[in-house]
Amino acid sequence: MSPRILPSRPGPTSQPPAVHARLAARGLVKRFGTTTALAGVDVDVADGEALAVTGPSGSGKSTLLHCLAGILPADEGAIRLRGQDVSRLNEAKRSLLRRKHYGFVFQFGQLLAELPAEENVALPAMLLGASRDDATRRAREWLGRLGLSGMEGRRPGELSGGQAQRVAVARALITGPSVVFADEPTGALDQATGHEVMQILTETTRAAGASLVLVTHDEDVAAWCPRRIEVRDGHIVSRGASR
Length: 243
Ligand SMILES: Nc1ncnc2c1ncn2[C@@H]1O[C@H](COP(=O)(O)OP(=O)(O)OP(=O)(O)O)[C@@H](O)[C@H]1O
Fold this sequence. Notes:
By secondary structure, this protein is of the alpha/beta class. It has seven helices and ten strands. One of its GO terms (molecular function) is ATP binding.
Protein backbone atom coordinates (compact mmCIF):
# COMPACT_ATOMS: atom_id res chain seq x y z
CA MET A 1 0.00 0.00 0.00
CA SER A 2 1.50 3.35 -0.95
CA PRO A 3 1.71 5.90 1.87
CA ARG A 4 -0.72 8.80 1.93
CA ILE A 5 0.84 12.07 0.86
CA LEU A 6 -1.25 14.41 2.98
CA PRO A 7 -2.18 14.18 6.64
CA SER A 8 -5.82 13.39 7.24
CA ARG A 9 -6.10 16.53 9.38
CA PRO A 10 -3.52 19.05 8.16
CA GLY A 11 -1.95 21.27 10.80
CA PRO A 12 -1.29 24.99 10.52
CA THR A 13 1.08 24.48 7.56
CA SER A 14 -0.16 23.06 4.28
CA GLN A 15 3.13 21.49 3.17
CA PRO A 16 3.33 17.70 3.44
CA PRO A 17 6.32 16.27 5.37
CA ALA A 18 9.51 16.07 3.30
CA VAL A 19 9.76 12.70 1.60
CA HIS A 20 13.56 12.78 1.36
CA ALA A 21 14.13 13.29 5.11
CA ARG A 22 14.54 10.26 7.35
CA LEU A 23 12.04 11.76 9.76
CA ALA A 24 9.85 14.73 8.85
CA ALA A 25 7.05 16.46 10.71
CA ARG A 26 4.73 19.22 9.59
CA GLY A 27 2.33 21.32 11.61
CA LEU A 28 2.58 19.30 14.83
CA VAL A 29 0.09 20.46 17.43
CA LYS A 30 -0.21 18.92 20.89
CA ARG A 31 -2.53 20.15 23.61
CA PHE A 32 -2.87 19.08 27.21
CA GLY A 33 -6.22 20.46 28.32
CA THR A 34 -5.95 24.21 27.89
CA THR A 35 -2.15 24.11 27.49
CA THR A 36 -0.86 24.10 23.92
CA ALA A 37 2.51 22.38 24.28
CA LEU A 38 3.20 22.35 20.51
CA ALA A 39 1.65 25.04 18.36
CA GLY A 40 2.43 23.92 14.81
CA VAL A 41 6.00 22.63 14.56
CA ASP A 42 7.89 21.56 11.43
CA VAL A 43 11.03 19.42 11.77
CA ASP A 44 13.19 17.48 9.32
CA VAL A 45 15.84 15.02 10.46
CA ALA A 46 18.22 13.90 7.72
CA ASP A 47 19.87 10.51 7.33
CA GLY A 48 22.49 10.05 10.01
CA GLU A 49 22.30 13.61 11.31
CA ALA A 50 22.37 14.67 14.95
CA LEU A 51 19.83 17.37 15.79
CA ALA A 52 19.63 19.14 19.14
CA VAL A 53 16.29 20.49 20.41
CA THR A 54 16.91 23.26 22.93
CA GLY A 55 14.75 25.73 24.84
CA PRO A 56 13.77 26.72 28.36
CA SER A 57 11.86 24.56 30.82
CA GLY A 58 8.25 24.03 29.76
CA SER A 59 8.85 25.19 26.17
CA GLY A 60 7.70 21.90 24.62
CA LYS A 61 10.98 20.05 23.95
CA SER A 62 9.99 16.74 25.52
CA THR A 63 6.52 16.92 24.02
CA LEU A 64 8.10 17.36 20.59
CA LEU A 65 10.37 14.36 21.16
CA HIS A 66 7.45 12.27 22.41
CA CYS A 67 5.32 13.15 19.37
CA LEU A 68 8.16 12.59 16.88
CA ALA A 69 8.91 9.21 18.47
CA GLY A 70 5.29 8.07 18.55
CA ILE A 71 5.17 7.96 22.36
CA LEU A 72 2.34 10.51 22.22
CA PRO A 73 -0.09 10.97 19.33
CA ALA A 74 -0.09 14.56 18.01
CA ASP A 75 -3.49 16.26 17.87
CA GLU A 76 -2.75 17.73 14.45
CA GLY A 77 -0.02 17.51 11.85
CA ALA A 78 1.80 14.82 9.93
CA ILE A 79 4.93 12.73 10.49
CA ARG A 80 6.77 10.60 7.98
CA LEU A 81 9.51 8.08 8.71
CA ARG A 82 11.52 7.32 5.55
CA GLY A 83 8.62 8.65 3.49
CA GLN A 84 6.03 6.50 5.26
CA ASP A 85 3.12 8.26 6.97
CA VAL A 86 3.21 7.34 10.68
CA SER A 87 0.89 10.14 11.83
CA ARG A 88 -2.27 8.27 12.62
CA LEU A 89 -1.17 4.92 14.00
CA ASN A 90 -3.03 3.44 16.96
CA GLU A 91 -1.17 2.73 20.21
CA ALA A 92 -0.32 -0.89 19.26
CA LYS A 93 1.17 0.16 15.92
CA ARG A 94 3.04 3.09 17.50
CA SER A 95 4.49 0.66 20.02
CA LEU A 96 5.71 -1.62 17.22
CA LEU A 97 7.11 1.40 15.34
CA ARG A 98 9.09 2.44 18.42
CA ARG A 99 10.40 -1.06 19.00
CA LYS A 100 11.47 -1.65 15.38
CA HIS A 101 12.75 1.73 14.30
CA TYR A 102 13.67 3.82 17.33
CA GLY A 103 16.07 3.71 20.26
CA PHE A 104 15.68 5.76 23.44
CA VAL A 105 18.07 7.22 25.99
CA PHE A 106 16.46 9.14 28.84
CA GLN A 107 17.85 10.99 31.83
CA PHE A 108 17.53 7.97 34.07
CA GLY A 109 15.19 5.16 34.90
CA GLN A 110 14.92 3.38 31.56
CA LEU A 111 16.95 0.40 32.75
CA LEU A 112 15.16 -2.37 34.62
CA ALA A 113 16.66 -2.38 38.12
CA GLU A 114 16.29 -6.12 38.70
CA LEU A 115 18.04 -7.20 35.47
CA PRO A 116 21.80 -7.35 34.87
CA ALA A 117 23.26 -4.99 32.26
CA GLU A 118 23.44 -7.64 29.53
CA GLU A 119 19.78 -8.58 29.96
CA ASN A 120 18.75 -4.93 29.90
CA VAL A 121 20.57 -4.55 26.58
CA ALA A 122 19.36 -7.88 25.16
CA LEU A 123 15.69 -7.23 25.94
CA PRO A 124 14.77 -4.96 22.97
CA ALA A 125 16.35 -7.50 20.57
CA MET A 126 14.37 -10.34 22.17
CA LEU A 127 11.16 -8.31 21.92
CA LEU A 128 11.80 -8.16 18.17
CA GLY A 129 12.16 -11.94 17.99
CA ALA A 130 15.88 -12.65 18.55
CA SER A 131 16.64 -15.79 20.54
CA ARG A 132 17.99 -15.28 24.06
CA ASP A 133 21.43 -16.64 22.99
CA ASP A 134 21.68 -14.36 19.97
CA ALA A 135 20.42 -11.31 21.86
CA THR A 136 22.81 -11.96 24.74
CA ARG A 137 25.76 -12.35 22.36
CA ARG A 138 24.90 -9.07 20.66
CA ALA A 139 24.37 -7.35 24.02
CA ARG A 140 27.84 -8.45 25.17
CA GLU A 141 29.35 -7.13 21.93
CA TRP A 142 27.68 -3.76 22.45
CA LEU A 143 28.73 -3.56 26.08
CA GLY A 144 32.31 -4.37 25.05
CA ARG A 145 32.21 -1.70 22.36
CA LEU A 146 31.07 0.84 24.96
CA GLY A 147 33.87 -0.03 27.39
CA LEU A 148 31.79 -2.12 29.79
CA SER A 149 33.46 -5.53 29.40
CA GLY A 150 33.37 -7.32 32.72
CA MET A 151 30.27 -5.44 33.87
CA GLU A 152 27.71 -7.52 31.96
CA GLY A 153 26.39 -9.13 35.14
CA ARG A 154 25.98 -5.94 37.17
CA ARG A 155 22.56 -4.55 37.90
CA PRO A 156 21.93 -0.85 37.26
CA GLY A 157 22.27 -0.08 40.99
CA GLU A 158 25.80 -1.50 40.86
CA LEU A 159 26.88 0.84 38.06
CA SER A 160 27.92 4.51 38.14
CA GLY A 161 25.63 7.03 36.47
CA GLY A 162 27.91 7.24 33.44
CA GLN A 163 28.17 3.45 33.17
CA ALA A 164 24.39 3.13 33.41
CA GLN A 165 23.99 5.64 30.57
CA ARG A 166 26.44 3.60 28.45
CA VAL A 167 24.25 0.58 29.06
CA ALA A 168 21.27 2.71 27.99
CA VAL A 169 23.12 3.66 24.77
CA ALA A 170 23.84 -0.02 24.05
CA ARG A 171 20.19 -0.81 24.73
CA ALA A 172 19.10 1.92 22.33
CA LEU A 173 21.36 0.71 19.52
CA ILE A 174 21.13 -3.09 19.71
CA THR A 175 18.13 -3.26 17.36
CA GLY A 176 19.77 -1.10 14.65
CA PRO A 177 17.29 1.79 14.93
CA SER A 178 16.72 4.46 12.29
CA VAL A 179 16.53 7.21 14.89
CA VAL A 180 17.78 7.46 18.48
CA PHE A 181 15.82 9.85 20.72
CA ALA A 182 17.68 11.17 23.75
CA ASP A 183 15.94 13.34 26.37
CA GLU A 184 18.40 15.10 28.70
CA PRO A 185 20.71 12.04 28.64
CA THR A 186 23.33 13.81 30.76
CA GLY A 187 20.86 15.50 33.12
CA ALA A 188 21.80 13.33 36.09
CA LEU A 189 25.56 13.35 35.47
CA ASP A 190 28.42 15.65 36.44
CA GLN A 191 29.98 17.68 33.63
CA ALA A 192 32.94 15.39 32.91
CA THR A 193 30.81 12.25 32.87
CA GLY A 194 28.19 14.02 30.77
CA HIS A 195 30.88 14.93 28.26
CA GLU A 196 32.01 11.30 28.10
CA VAL A 197 28.44 10.03 27.60
CA MET A 198 27.75 12.61 24.86
CA GLN A 199 30.92 11.58 23.04
CA ILE A 200 29.89 7.93 23.18
CA LEU A 201 26.28 8.66 22.26
CA THR A 202 27.12 10.80 19.22
CA GLU A 203 29.96 8.59 17.98
CA THR A 204 28.20 5.26 18.32
CA THR A 205 24.93 6.59 16.90
CA ARG A 206 26.75 7.98 13.87
CA ALA A 207 28.77 4.77 13.41
CA ALA A 208 25.55 2.75 13.56
CA GLY A 209 24.04 4.92 10.80
CA ALA A 210 21.21 6.16 13.03
CA SER A 211 19.97 9.74 13.20
CA LEU A 212 19.91 11.37 16.64
CA VAL A 213 17.33 13.73 18.10
CA LEU A 214 18.63 15.13 21.38
CA VAL A 215 16.57 17.23 23.80
CA THR A 216 18.55 19.39 26.20
CA HIS A 217 18.41 22.75 27.93
CA ASP A 218 22.22 22.72 28.21
CA GLU A 219 24.13 24.66 25.53
CA ASP A 220 27.29 22.60 26.01
CA VAL A 221 25.38 19.37 25.46
CA ALA A 222 23.59 20.79 22.39
CA ALA A 223 26.97 21.70 20.92
CA TRP A 224 27.64 17.99 20.34
CA CYS A 225 25.07 18.11 17.54
CA PRO A 226 25.97 19.94 14.31
CA ARG A 227 22.45 21.34 13.93
CA ARG A 228 19.90 22.60 16.40
CA ILE A 229 16.41 24.00 16.72
CA GLU A 230 15.21 26.15 19.60
CA VAL A 231 11.67 25.79 20.97
CA ARG A 232 9.78 28.45 22.92
CA ASP A 233 6.14 28.32 23.95
CA GLY A 234 5.52 25.45 21.55
CA HIS A 235 7.02 27.22 18.52
CA ILE A 236 10.40 26.80 16.84
CA VAL A 237 12.01 30.21 17.20
CA SER A 238 15.39 29.49 15.64
CA ARG A 239 17.12 26.94 13.45
CA GLY A 240 20.78 26.74 12.66
CA ALA A 241 24.19 25.27 13.23
CA SER A 242 25.31 24.59 16.77
CA ARG A 243 28.21 26.72 17.89
N1 LIG B 1 1.13 15.08 30.42
C1 LIG B 1 0.95 16.39 30.51
N2 LIG B 1 -0.19 16.89 31.02
C2 LIG B 1 -0.41 18.21 31.08
N3 LIG B 1 0.47 19.15 30.67
C3 LIG B 1 1.64 18.71 30.17
C4 LIG B 1 1.94 17.32 30.06
N4 LIG B 1 3.17 17.19 29.51
C5 LIG B 1 3.63 18.44 29.28
N5 LIG B 1 2.71 19.35 29.68
C6 LIG B 1 2.83 20.81 29.56
O1 LIG B 1 3.23 21.12 28.23
C7 LIG B 1 4.20 22.16 28.22
C8 LIG B 1 5.48 21.65 27.57
O2 LIG B 1 6.05 20.65 28.41
P1 LIG B 1 7.38 19.86 28.03
O3 LIG B 1 7.59 18.81 29.06
O4 LIG B 1 7.31 19.43 26.62
O5 LIG B 1 8.49 21.01 28.16
P2 LIG B 1 10.07 20.89 28.19
O6 LIG B 1 10.58 21.97 27.33
O7 LIG B 1 10.50 19.51 27.84
O8 LIG B 1 10.38 21.20 29.71
P3 LIG B 1 11.56 20.67 30.68
O9 LIG B 1 12.86 21.20 30.10
O10 LIG B 1 11.24 21.31 31.99
O11 LIG B 1 11.48 19.18 30.71
C9 LIG B 1 4.37 22.59 29.67
O12 LIG B 1 3.51 23.70 29.90
C10 LIG B 1 3.91 21.38 30.46
O13 LIG B 1 3.40 21.77 31.72
